[in-house]
Amino acid sequence: MIWLVAFIVCVGFVSAETPSHYRVHNDRVIGGHDAKPDVWKWQVSLQLDSYNDGSFYHICGGTIVDSFYIMTAAHCILSSDPQQYRAVVGEYNLDHYEGSEQLHRVEKIVVHPHWNGDLGLGNDIAILRLADPIYDNGHVAIANLPSPGATLPNNFECVITGWGLIDFSGSVPAILQEAPIPVVEHSVCSQPDWWGSLAKETMVCAGGDGIISGCQGDSGGPLNCFTDEAWRVYGVVSYGPAGMCNQLRKPTVFTRVASFMDWMYSVMYN
Question: Which residues carry out catalysis?
Answer without folding.
Answer: 75, 124, 219
